[in-house]
C-alpha cells in the first residue's frame, strides 16, 4: 500500500532507496538542531526551548511534505532567516524576538492564502526559464560555499581579501578534504549512499582519532518548550513601524522557498517540459504552514531545505524519503548529545559535492543572448557572494526587467515578472542596511 501511495513504481524507486535518501538528508541536516537555537540565543530565545521548537518544526514540516506533497524535500528553519532576526531585527533595530516571530507568523499566513488562491504558483510558473537555471546554479555555488567555510577549507579573511585558504594542517580540515575525496570517489563509482557513507565514515574516523569525545550519557530529558510556546506578538508586528519589516520577510520567504524548490526540482528532474514543478502548490503550502507552526512553537521562517539535495542524490525520489527524515529527527529530543556528535567537517564535504553536482544545469543557459545572460549572471554571483539567496534572486528579477526594457524587448516581460521586479525593488528600498 505504501508503494502505491508514494508511487514507487512510477518513480522507479524502492523502500531501500527512499530510506537511504531519508537517512542522507537527516545526516546532512543534523547540525540545524544545535546551530539554529545557538543563533537564536543571541536574540534572547533560550537555547533548550529553541532546540525543541527547531526539532518539532522539522518533524511537522517534513512529515507534511512527505505525506501531503509527496516530495523528498525536508523542511527546517532557514539559516539566513534566523541570523536576520537575531542580529538585524533584535540586536541592531531593537525589536523583541516576540514581535519578530509575530511578523514571521503573518508572512506564513499571507503565503498560505496566496498559495491556496494559486497566485503564488502563477508567479513562480511565470519566471523565465533562464532565471530558473540561474537559481539552480546559484544554489549549487552557495551550497558549496557553505560547505567550504563550515569545513574550514576556506576562512573569512580581511577587508581587502574577504576569504582566504584555511589552515590545511589542522586535522579537522584534513578530514574534510578526505571526506570530499571519499564522497567524490564513491560517486564516480556510482555507489548507492555515497554521501551518507562519507558523512558517517568521517565522523567515525574523527572518533577513532580522538577529535570527538563520545558523551558518557547519550540520552537527555527533552527540553521544556513552554517558555517560548505561543509567545509570538502578532499585535506588535502589525504596528505601522514594523510593516516594512513584514514586507521584507514576505519577500525573503517567497524568494527563498521558490528558489530552493525550483533549484532542487531542476536537479532532481521533477520539472515538466515547460520547466514547471507539477502541483507546486502542495510543497509551497507545506512551507507556509511550517512557517506559521514554527513561529507558534518559537522559531523562525521554515521552508524546503537545500540539504535535501544530498538525499535526492542518494536516491530519494518520493515523499517516503521525507517521512523517514522526519521520524529520524524526533529522537533528537531525547538523544541530542548523540546527534550532536556529527561535526561540521563531516557533513560539509557532502554540501560541497552536492553543490558541485548542481552545476550541471549551467550548460542549459543561453549564453548567446545577453538579455538572458546578464540577469542570470547577476543572480548567480549575488546569491554566492552576498551569502544570501533572497538578495541574489531579487537582484535577478530587477536586472532581467531593466535589461529587457533597455534592449527594446519589453513584450518578453510577463505580467508576473513585472510584479516580482516591483516587489524586489521595494525589498531593496526597505532593506535595513
Summarize the topology.
Layout: H1 2-5, H2 8-11, H3 15-29, H4 32-41, H5 47-69, E1 75-77, H6 79-92, H7 97-116, H8 119-125, H9 129-151, E2 154-158, E3 161-165, H10 171-188, H11 194-208, H12 234-237, H13 243-268, H14 281-297, E4 302-304, H15 308-313, H16 319-329, H17 336-339, H18 344-358, H19 370-385, H20 389-406, H21 415-430
Antiparallel strand pairs: 1-4, 2-3
Quaternary organization: single chain
Low-confidence stretches: none
**What percentage of residues falls in helices of 4 or more residues?**
55-70%
Largest sheet: 2 strands, antiparallel
- The tally of beta strands, per DSSP, is 4
Strand content: under 5%
The CA-CA distance between the termini, in Å, is 53 Å
| SSE string | HHHHHEHHHHEEHHHHHEHHHHHHH
Global geometry: globular
Task: Provide keyphrases for this structure.
single chain; 433 residues; mainly alpha; two-stranded antiparallel sheet; 21 helices; 66% helix; globular
Q: Would you mind describing this structure in some detail?
A:
The structure is a single chain. By secondary structure, this protein is mainly alpha-helical. The protein has 21 helices and four strands. The protein has a two-stranded antiparallel sheet. The chain has a two-stranded antiparallel ribbon with strand order 2-3. A hairpin with a 2-residue loop joins strand 2 and strand 3.
Amino acid at each position: 500500500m505504501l508503494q502505491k501511495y508514494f508511487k514507487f513504481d512510477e518513480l522507479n524507486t524502492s523502500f531501500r532507496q527512499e530510506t537511504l535518501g531519508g537517512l542522507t538528508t537527516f545526516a546532512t541536516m543534523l547540525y540545524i538542531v544545535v546551530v539554529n537555537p545557538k543563533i537564536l540565543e543571541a536574540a534572547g530565545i533560550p537555547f533548550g526551548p529553541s532546540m525543541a521548537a527547531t526539532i518539532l518544526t522539522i518533524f511537522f514540516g517534513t512529515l507534511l511534505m512527505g505525506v501531503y506533497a509527496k516530495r523528498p524535500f525536508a523542511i527546517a528553519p532557514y539559516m539566513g532567516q534566523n541570523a536576520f532576526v537575531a542580529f538585524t531585527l533584535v540586536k541592531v533595530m531593537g525589536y523583541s524576538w516576540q514581535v519578530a516571530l509575530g511578523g514571521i507568523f503573518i508572512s506564513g499566513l499571507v503565503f498560505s492564502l496566496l498559495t491556496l488562491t494559486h497566485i503564488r504558483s502563477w508567479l513562480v510558473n511565470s519566471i523565465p526559464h533562464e532565471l530558473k537555471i540561474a537559481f539552480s546554479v546559484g544554489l549549487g555555488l552557495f551550497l558549496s560555499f557553505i560547505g567550504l567555510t563550515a569545513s574550514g577549507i576556506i576562512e573569512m579573511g580581511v577587508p581587502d581579501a574577504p576569504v582566504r585558504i584555511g589552515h590545511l594542517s589542522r586535522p579537522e580540515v584534513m578530514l574534510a578534504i578526505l571526506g570530499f575525496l571519499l564522497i567524490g570517489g564513491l560517486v564516480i563509482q556510482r555507489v548507492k549512499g555515497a554521501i551518507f557513507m562519507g558523512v558517517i565514515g568521517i565522523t567515525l574516523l574523527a572518533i577513532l582519532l580522538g577529535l570527538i569525545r563520545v558523551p558518557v550519557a547519550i540520552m537527555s530529558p527533552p527540553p521544556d518548550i513552554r517558555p517560548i510556546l505561543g509567545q509570538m506578538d502578532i499585535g506588535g508586528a502589525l504596528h505601522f513601524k514594523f510593516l516594512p519589516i513584514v514586507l521584507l520577510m514576505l519577500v525573503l520567504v517567497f524568494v527563498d522557498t521558490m528558489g530552493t524548490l525550483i533549484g532542487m526540482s531542476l536537479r532532481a528532474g521533477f520539472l515538466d517540459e515547460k520547466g514547471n514543478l507539477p502541483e507546486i502548490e502542495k510543497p509551497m503550502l507545506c512551507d507556509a504552514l511550517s512557517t506559521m507552526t514554527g513561529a507558534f512553537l518559537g522559531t523562525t521562517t521554515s521552508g524546503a531545505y537545500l540539504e535535501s539535495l544530498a538525499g535526492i542524490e542518494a536516491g530519494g525520489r518520493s515523499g517516503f524519503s521525507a517521512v523517514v527524515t522526519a521520524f529520524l529527527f524526533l529522537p533528537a529530543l531525547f538523544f541530542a548529545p548523540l546527534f550532536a556528535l556529527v561535526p561540521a567537517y563531516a557533513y560539509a564535504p557532502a554540501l560541497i559535492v552536492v553543490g558541485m553536482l548542481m552545476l550541471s544545469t549551467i550548460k542549459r543557459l543561453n549564453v548567446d543572448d545577453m538579455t538572458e545572460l546578464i540577469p542570470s549572471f547577476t543572480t548567480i554571483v549575488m546569491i554566492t557572494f552576498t551569502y544570501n539567496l533572497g538578495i541574489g534572486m531579487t537582484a535577478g528579477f530587477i536586472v532581467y526587467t531593466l535589461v529587457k526594457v533597455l534592449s527594446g524587448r519589453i513584450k518578453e516581460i510577463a505580467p508576473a515578472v513585472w510584479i516580482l521586479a516591483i516587489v524586489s525593488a521595494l525589498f531593496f528600498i526597505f532593506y535595513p542596511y
